[in-house]
Fold this protein.
Amino acid sequence: MSLNLLASDWIADQNKSALSAHQTDLEHALEQLDRRGIDGRAVIDTLAAFSVAVPSWALGTGGTRFGRFPLGGEPRTIEEKLADCAVINRLTRANRTVSLHIPWDNPDDPQALVEYAKGLELGFDAMNSNTFQDQPGQVQSYKFGSLCHTDKAVRDQAIAHNLDVIALGEKLGSDQITIWLADGSSFPGQMDIRGAFERTESSLVEIYQKMPGDYTMFLEHKPYEPAFYMTVIQDWGSSYLMASRLGGRAQCLVDLGHHLPNSNIEQVVSRLLMADKLGGFHFNDSKYGDDDITTGSIKPYQLFLVFVELAAGQQVGGPFQDKLAFMIDASHNLKDPIEDLLQSTDAITLALAQSLVLNRSALSDAQQNNDVTQAQELLHAAYRLDVRPLVAEARLRNGGALSPIEAYRASNYRRQIIEERGTEGGAAGL
Amino acid sequence: MSLNLLASDWIADQNKSALSAHQTDLEHALEQLDRRGIDGRAVIDTLAAFSVAVPSWALGTGGTRFGRFPLGGEPRTIEEKLADCAVINRLTRANRTVSLHIPWDNPDDPQALVEYAKGLELGFDAMNSNTFQDQPGQVQSYKFGSLCHTDKAVRDQAIAHNLDVIALGEKLGSDQITIWLADGSSFPGQMDIRGAFERTESSLVEIYQKMPGDYTMFLEHKPYEPAFYMTVIQDWGSSYLMASRLGGRAQCLVDLGHHLPNSNIEQVVSRLLMADKLGGFHFNDSKYGDDDITTGSIKPYQLFLVFVELAAGQQVGGPFQDKLAFMIDASHNLKDPIEDLLQSTDAITLALAQSLVLNRSALSDAQQNNDVTQAQELLHAAYRLDVRPLVAEARLRNGGALSPIEAYRASNYRRQIIEERGTEGGAAGL
Amino acid sequence: MSLNLLASDWIADQNKSALSAHQTDLEHALEQLDRRGIDGRAVIDTLAAFSVAVPSWALGTGGTRFGRFPLGGEPRTIEEKLADCAVINRLTRANRTVSLHIPWDNPDDPQALVEYAKGLELGFDAMNSNTFQDQPGQVQSYKFGSLCHTDKAVRDQAIAHNLDVIALGEKLGSDQITIWLADGSSFPGQMDIRGAFERTESSLVEIYQKMPGDYTMFLEHKPYEPAFYMTVIQDWGSSYLMASRLGGRAQCLVDLGHHLPNSNIEQVVSRLLMADKLGGFHFNDSKYGDDDITTGSIKPYQLFLVFVELAAGQQVGGPFQDKLAFMIDASHNLKDPIEDLLQSTDAITLALAQSLVLNRSALSDAQQNNDVTQAQELLHAAYRLDVRPLVAEARLRNGGALSPIEAYRASNYRRQIIEERGTEGGAAGL
Amino acid sequence: MSLNLLASDWIADQNKSALSAHQTDLEHALEQLDRRGIDGRAVIDTLAAFSVAVPSWALGTGGTRFGRFPLGGEPRTIEEKLADCAVINRLTRANRTVSLHIPWDNPDDPQALVEYAKGLELGFDAMNSNTFQDQPGQVQSYKFGSLCHTDKAVRDQAIAHNLDVIALGEKLGSDQITIWLADGSSFPGQMDIRGAFERTESSLVEIYQKMPGDYTMFLEHKPYEPAFYMTVIQDWGSSYLMASRLGGRAQCLVDLGHHLPNSNIEQVVSRLLMADKLGGFHFNDSKYGDDDITTGSIKPYQLFLVFVELAAGQQVGGPFQDKLAFMIDASHNLKDPIEDLLQSTDAITLALAQSLVLNRSALSDAQQNNDVTQAQELLHAAYRLDVRPLVAEARLRNGGALSPIEAYRASNYRRQIIEERGTEGGAAGL
């Protein structure tokens, strides 16, 4: 089976040729940090403990409204999706969990799936429900909304689906559900703005009350979809309002791409953390809208600033914000999805590393004294430092690859799965 | 004195020539409404009772960062500002109150000012404090913020100023204070995002607690000012969060220009109304940012949609949302400020009229049945109806002018105040 | 056949009940125009001569990235698409041509299609080529671009396709081709920005040179697609540059939805008209991006301002800008596509009517004298006038329906085609 | 005099303590480049030859619409402005020219000013005219525009002013004039969109024709100012159109802040370079609009991408794009202007350095093969490299400071000029 290609020994072997240059770069990075009074080894500890989930639907080629341009070798089953996730994690050792999407990933035998995943050293992260598509044989249509629908029968169907996903999650060892709604309207007047929120609230209350006691519900806001005039949970304000009305186990989830132009996203993160309502974060990048392209490919400095907020109050050396659910939520139209996820994971871990080498006490002093120049100097000192050796060292220590993309290409994994799976489109669902 | 020019008799005289055409248009409008089963007379009743405040600072020529191009005749004192406001109200009879800005409008003798205003048939609306400028002789500087400042001495000065404004408001018969803060930062890192909010909160708590029991505090959010990276109360979410923490007499105020590109402002209005936190609305229009240009000059349909939300649950024929504070918040760089305010008042009243002729029960049915086409037909049926005769009739009934701008130009008021006041800039403060 | 339902007699019959109210409204509108010295009858002449093309792909249910929610009765063949277009035109008499999209609409027998269309009183407008999708059996893939591709073989295939479309257009009586390219890249660095433009240019030169002498090529710019970092022809500047390099028969086409946030689209129209490079206009509306929703549903005042520019220099009473290609380019996800197109046509014709009742000589005087208030008064006087009776009269005179949507619903056409065509999705291509 | 503080010896002395760490970092950087086959010494050569102009108006505290919060020590005369510029250049050795703004910087004796500047090792860059403010005693007002005005007398005054600035430039050794116009309108209808462009064109033609044969005219576009509805030269398309109509010595100038939300600015740079119309670039940064804050403080990756385009076709080791006029165009509301300009210069030079260490031939291969992953890897390999040692080495070699801001603070220059010049506002003009 293809995965044998990426066994630990093989990866260690791949690392050999670059090891000496890595050591030189690492020592230099540690020396630079030492000069600034920062414990680089503790930073590596935190990096080595960090993990960001991969969504099951990200392994296939994404699509635009004009159709898909398939790559070949796309996974046809949930098992094949997990195999691809395992490849990524073997290379990075920073993607230890997978986020499933139901019904796309509905397993016949949940327990068998848990065992299979365990064999791949993978766990299950937050479950995702889907009430934005009509499935074959579905009784009620979500054309005009799901949890917000004017017809109680449609709402009931959507509520039942979410409860099914939660029940499945329990069997898989997940204790979180992410509810993203495409509920909204395309035209002024189409929907009673207030009524739609209130109906959604009553639907969520029902799900919340039936959720097991250790389960957390994440609400994900989004200002618009193509062709929309409004969505029901359009921004962090509505998300916060809804989560507050539901209770302590309802939390807000922020997706980097779900904001109006020019939004200050790091400030949204700060507000939700302050209000004790930040539950998780979805990573991607974008230039115009919710483009879902590779994290860090467009605005890497913004990503750093987001991590500066996410890591506020963080003790370097300890585990990073272990209560937050982190996931890559991107689409892969042009790149090999595995390469794309490797690049995203790298960018995320680099931004985390930059936030960890920030001299926070000096920054706090500069803020207190309104020394604006110095505050910027400190941010840039962290951001411009080449932290790639720290991230590579964390991977190395965990048994991952020094250069994940090079190793992946060397493995010929894609060629092999094309042979196994064929060139037709897969089971992404989208 | 110039105001004699615009006495009731004179206005009635001005109206004569257009009266017959007005009657024809009015009858036709009423007939059209009648066909649709809408009581046009009740609509006129609501329009006749409506009033929107004029801010004292709007009577002078506004400025851009390049300087001002004064018009001449600008008011030099608060009394002259009120005189101009009285002119506007005599023409429209829909601008019965004035919103003062302190310290720009600090009166020597508040009681005398009340009497003076009464003589002009004007009252006082919400008071506005100012902690975004340094005044001559001021001990602490607001360069790095006011209620959010890292230095307690600066915060105390800003708190004291707000309490002074409230005390003055009490003397003037106002029971509302609008707090708009330019507090924020220009660069990432400059300000502790969370700390700035929490310091602002503690400052506001102090003001709130010392506020008389019948006083209401309005918080006005804004995403950015030129050269800003963030503001402390950047959106309705932060405004709502802050107002919730303060208590029931803290309310949110929405300004049409204080939003990111593409924001759905009518939805913000709906959310705050639902959460019982909408306190008031500031009218203006804009194409790019917070342009503060004439209301209705760029996006009149959006203005209508805002009124559809503002008037949700409204009984046509009764007074319009009498708990909400309405104000025109615009700047007048090119037009004669009086003409500009006449145009804004007209656009606001027209949008209100359009929202009142909307067939809400039919709309509600269309929404319930997801009849999207029909919902749009109903909105457009209200919006495209020519409601100008209804608004003109409401003015006429109140003793105002059929054509306020024509009457104003005929009065030669501007020429006369140029003679009295000169051509130099006035006391706008900005 | 279903079309019998909408014969002239039947429509005339439908109009009867509303005729008297229409006459009243029309007389009032004409009287109002008369008071302002505007010849309303001449306006109706221009309105009655106006037509905007319907695109063949607009008759099916559109889709979002989550899939389609089909309506039922969607056309399965080009003949069924034309039948639906004919229904629209019978109701409006302002949609006399259809714009085909190849290969979606490739006819077996072009001559037979021409005859069939003629029988439906329809002609063919600009042809549209498609190099943004891979068709089954296609040798080269457009995954990484078409006319801009780095591989000459791909470019050649795309050039050949465009020449095929032109050849087909000749047979159908069309003398225009609209080239919209999804060519672009998703990531910085992916594409040589300059090289991509230059390769596109060389491809277009080849098409241009082989185009028949009476043929016109329209280039349609667009700043982004979902998941894009850049497009090759991103704005009117690039479109103008390209069209200039090609020659006089290359023209720019403006689509209302293809602009960055806050763009001043009417100014783009003015610039291209000045440079003699405006070839046509695609109508739709949007709140956030290229939403392709019903024209006039979001920003009707902007639509009016666009028409003020489109009609600059226009003689009222004559045909409207007969050299420009007008098309509705919208997608219909929620509404019945026929109702949606009826609403769009109505909004477009109303905006044209508003632009025709504008007192241009008075506006010109106000502009010359920098009388900003008066310029706005004049625009609003035209915009706020209820011109619906003029548009209805133009329809009536041409044999169309007074209330197209009511008549359409009364006809039960949708119910009948659902019976004939079934409820499965159609041949929209998207 | 204050400048003595920053003599070469003193700077060399300041550098001593950090020299050893710098050498270590530099060697490591060169080793890393060497591994990638890039000649780091040649990169340093190009960096050492690079210079970006400082505008004379940037040395004072900027202002917002609420007023200025002066810093103290602001220059009161053009000589004091030049002194501050000299301080910056002594520290960076990368700001060798100053860009003057007339009338703010009108010298009594141009020849004496040239001598004075020479003594400070400074030259004069592009001159800037000002027709966006009314100056005391000015006959015609620019309230309603300057080169676009409807009144020929106003246009003539503006034309004469530009010719005066050109004549002065000749005396000062400048051969470039930058014309930025605030000409535009605040409301739809206020201005004839086309007429305004054509009047501007005829005014520019007159200036162009009277310009000396070796002079170049830069046109700077901008989409909006606060309170605007449109500007006459709103985007690169209009700028290009205008420059094309004028002739070869009219060029377009791009300012990083003069774009609509989400604009792809690097693409604009590429287009103008391709069309042989890019004349220069103004550096700053912004989050929302034309914020004019420190370059690189918000979007450093975008700055890198702009330099990737600016340096396209560039031979590393030679002088950088010596035909382009580079200037920092920022405003300094909160930071010490000198510190702000030091940070901007640093960010600009770093972005240049990153663009120079990009492996362009490998990138070109990846582009040719549509290897999207690899193209991004190459961009990031250049961007994430810590090039600060290269930039520091270039400064060091030229006699500048290793750490310009630390050296500046150590010099106590600000304290000294506060003593000399006082704490009142200066002569910035804005």
User: Anything to note?
Assistant: Chain A touches chain B through 56 residues (CB under 8 Å). The mean pLDDT of chain A is 95. Chain A is about 45% helix and 10% strand. The first helix of chain A runs from residue 8 to 35.
